[in-house]
Design brief:
By secondary structure, the chain is of the alpha/beta class. It is globular and about 45 Å long. Strand 1, helix 2 and strand 2 form a beta-alpha-beta unit. The longest helix is centred in the first third of the chain and has 21 residues. The protein is built from 8 helices and 12 strands. The chain starts with a helix and ends with a helix. The strands form 4 sheets. Strands 1, 2, 3, 8, 9 and 12 form a 6-stranded parallel sheet that branches. The protein has a single domain, classed as Glycoside hydrolase/deacetylase (TIM Barrel, Alpha-Beta Barrel), CATH 3.20.20.
């Protein structure tokens, strides 16, 4: 057999085996993985989202803005939620976003990330981690970029903080296999008005493709201009619970740690 033909044949076999391995990937022994994340530390997290999760025995990640008045007023409730297994993730101290980008006219100068120094952005993230540790007693957690922004003047302010978090959630949508996940920019689907059928449809895609699916919520039943109805949210949670034998549902801190260990193991 011609050497070139033989080499092409070998490569095709290897690629086929790799593709099959991806299609049959297991997540902690299950067909796919789902993470439920909730941003901004608002009242409906405690009033609607956490009770709904607790009612079906599922755990979520709540990305906390350190200066949120809901943190100060309801600290004991956040602490109790963490004790029940929900993650309190870091969403910075003030939720700054880059006002120079299109559609950011709602930002005030004080919340304009482009006016921050890199050091200030890093300090505010570390201050928030200290605050969260004071609430939940934990030293390990994940991070979420406000508005998905991670640079100031072209400088990646998060890079020096990478080892301080198990992973960081971005805002780009997508389903991914564990080897495809960038733990410094984990993909997710932001939900804003979509119904239960849309969300359960995403879960079915993840089941079929054996991939990671991350949901990004803000308001649940109100409380934010980015919202999901109570009915749609409940339909998703009950679907996940009904298929718990096939779906690994975990907070982001646990999911990111699992992916990191799997990626490191693959390199050995």
């Amino acid at each position: 057999m011609n050497r070139k033909i033989l080499l092409a044949f070998i490569i095709s076999i290897v690629m086929s085996q790799f593709s099959n391995a991806q299609q049959n990937e297991l997540w902690n022994g299950k067909k796919c993985a789902v993470v439920l994340t909730y941003d901004d530390a608002i009242d409906v997290d405690l009033d609607n989202a956490i009770p709904a999760l607790d009612s079906v025995g599922l755990k979520g990640t709540f990305y906390i803005i350190g200066q949120s008045p809901v943190v100060a007023k309801r600290m004991n409730e956040w602490r109790a939620a963490a004790q029940r297994g929900h993650e309190l993730g870091n969403h910075t101290l003030t939720h700054p976003c880059d006002a120079t980008l299109p559609g950011r006219s709602w930002l005030t100068p004080e919340d304009d990330l482009s006016r921050f120094s890199v050091k200030r952005a890093q300090n505010e993230i570390r201050i928030t981690s200290t605050l969260l540790q004071a609430i939940d007693g934990k030293t390990e957690r994940s991070f979420a970029y406000p508005c998905g922004d991670r640079t100031i003047g072209g400088v990646d302010f998060y890079k020096p903080l990478e080892k301080e978090f198990t992973g960081a959630r971005g805002v780009t949508p997508g389903l991914q296999h564990s080897n495809e996940v960038d733990l410094n920019d984990i993909r997710c689907y932001m939900i804003n008005g979509e119904g239960g059928d849309y969300m359960t449809g995403l879960v079915k895609q993840a089941l079929e493709s054996h991939t990671l699916l991350v949901f990004l919520f803000h308001g649940v039943g109100g409380g934010h201009n980015i919202n999901v109805s109570l009915e749609a949210h409940s339909k998703l949670l009950h679907f996940l619970k009904a298929h718990e034998n096939e779906i690994w549902i975990a907070p982001m801190v646990d999911m990111a740690r699992y992916i990191r260990e799997k990626q490191q193991s693959a390199k050995k």
